[in-house]
Amino acid sequence: MAEPIVFDPELIRRYDVAGPRYTSYPTAVQFTDEYDEAAYRRQLADSNRGGRPLSLYVHLPFCDTVCFYCACNKIVTKNRARAAPYVSHLVREVELQGGLIDATRVVEQLHWGGGTPTFLSHDEMRTVMDATRRHFRLRDDDGGQYSIEVDPREIRAGTLPLLRELGFNRLSMGVQDFDPAVQKAVNRLQSPELTFAVLGEARALGFRSVNMDLIYGLPLQTVDSFARTLAAVIAAAPDRLSIFNYAHLPKMFKTQRQIDESQLPSAQTRLDILQRTNEMLIAAGYVYIGMDHFARPDDELAVAQAQGTLYRNFQGYSTHADCDLIGLGITSIGAIQGRDAAGRVTAGYAQNVKTIDEYYARIDAGRLAVFRGIALSDDDRLRRDVIVALICHFALDVQAIEQAHGIVFGEYFAAELQALAALAADGLVRVDARRITVLPPGRFLIRNICMVFDRYLRERQGQRFSRVI
After folding, report:
1. DSSP single-letter state for residue 189
2. Is-above-0.90 flag for pTM?
3. d(CA 283, CA 428)
4. Confidence check: pLDDT of 47 > 70
5. I need a surface site. Which of 121, 401, 451, 453 has the fewest CB within 10 A?
6. Cα dihedral sign for 16, 17, 23, 25?
């Protein structure tokens, strides 16, 4: 990890194809309704035998205004009263899920995402957290990683002190771009002054890590305009930065149809923006974590990567590989692992229903909101471990995989190793009998390298994913 990443425009152009982001393997494309509430309940029982600590994700879908680029599951409304019935159903789901989980299991991670979680009133935020504390064992020593996504435009007087009081100690803040023309084109007007005021207040209140999200590839962006936004952000020195490539998929996401496609930057301009971004962040002392993420060297993500404990799940990069993830609220996804009565390892992913009406109906009937998912096979768990090692650490210990899964790596992955030879010839990876190492030019193309080990991608063509750069 001491070697700096290498930005090779020619290689990136050649490998810039569509592919998964690997917040899970198998990806959500493989989820099926054959994995239902009953399957999830069985695997929750198995997870209690495993006894791993917990990570909770709470989805709060409401937004006051729509950002045209957004691909999240959201409900856009100015009627704040719509949050009340959602909160009451969410509290009931917390109770239902909490009743199925061993009360001794500690919640080491908690994340509220959206939508805009701070759309809720202060009383509603208290209600959700109070219910969570009643039905799950939250830490009370501020030692957990409890984070929330915030829109600076939705921070009212007293909001940040309340969040700190409720136990949150990390923030993720949407920025995207400070250029006024870009903001108007995507319907997100947000001044630097407001944004940095929220950052300053968060630091004064003792929030231990602040992430800022930026997006490149938005309409009217240029290399210089995005560099100005990035320079302002770097000067504020957030602990982490997520720099996402905008994926324009208007057939899938209706709000994106309001974007003028003629104003989108060219592929070359996006590549130039990425190159300048990388140069600026590395010069400012940030570490490239992988997959759009940069962090200061003393941030937990960078430390975890250096220590070999970094993990990746539906919330992105994480410092806790040993947690079971419980999803709460519409469209949320959980990931659990445990042992069945015979002692065999079981694992699965479970997703809640996507519409608010379905969610209310399920909860009103006393049912869990899970409607689809997947039980992982032995092959799935093996390939997941390979992909996680590569995407988190840019290296794979062949012997460790062999011992963990009882395979001969060269025999099991003969076809994959043959495919890797072409990437090795291009200088993306180095492969020998003991180790696969992602070389500096390959780190921006880590998705391509992981795709080699994706059996579902190889067997089923035509799936719709965003481009890797």
Report:
1. -
2. yes
3. 23
4. yes
5. 121
6. negative
Q: Token pair 């959602």 is at which residue?
A: 86
Give the Cα separation of 50 and 445 in Å (integer). Answer: 35
Amino acid letter at 432?
D
Task: Give yes or no for a contact between 121 and 143, defined as CB atoms under 8 angstroms apart.
Answer: no
What gap in Å lies between CA 24 and CA 351, rounded to an integer?
12
Q: What are phi and psi of 123, to 5 degrees?
A: -65, -40
* Cβ proximity of 57 and 326 under 8 Å: yes
Give the C-alpha separation, 362 to 300, whole Å: 38
Residue 162: φ, ψ to 5°: -65, -45
For 335-371, the pLDDT digits (tens) are 999 999 999 999 999 999 999 999 999 999 999 999 9
| 468 SS3 class | coil
Beta bridge partners of 311: 318
- What gap in Å lies between CA 341 and CA 344, rounded to an integer? 8
What's the number of CA atoms in the CB half-sphere (13 Å) around residue 79?
6
Q: How far apart, in whole angstroms, are the C-alpha atoms of residue 357 and residue 279?
A: 47
Output the six-digit token pair for 409.
């790596």
Using the structure block, give the residue that is written with the tokens 């992955």: 413
What is the Cα–Cα distance from 419 to 409, expressed in whole angstroms? 14
pLDDT at 466: 61
* DSSP classification of residue 25: S
| pLDDT band, very low/low/confident/very high, at 462 (cuts 50, 70, 90) | very low
CA-CA distance, 25 to 313, in Å (whole number)? 9
State yes or no: pLDDT of 240 exceeds 60.
yes
Is the separation of the CB atoms in 186 and 69 below 8 Å?
yes
Q: How many residues does the chain have?
A: 469
- Which position has the token pair 């750069």? 469
Angle at CA 333, nearest 5°, toward 105 and 381? 80
Q: Which residues of 223-255 are buried (b: 16+ CB within 10 A; e: fewer)?
A: bebbeebbeebbeeebbbbbbbbbbbeeeeeeb
Q: What mean pLDDT do residues 122-139 have?
A: 98
Q: In this predicted structure, what is the pLDDT of residue 2?
A: 47
Residue 347 CB-density burial (10 A; 0-12 exposed, 13-18 middle, 19+ buried): buried
Please return the burial class of 273, using the count of CB atoms within 10 Å of its CB with bins 0-12, 13-18 and 19+: buried
Phi, psi of 154, deg, nearest 5: -105, 15
CA-to-CA distance for 152 and 330, rounded, in angstroms?
Answer: 23
Write the CB contacts of 141 (distance below 8 Å, at least 6 apart in sequence).
Answer: none
Q: From CA 280, how far away is CA 80, in angstroms rounded? A: 41
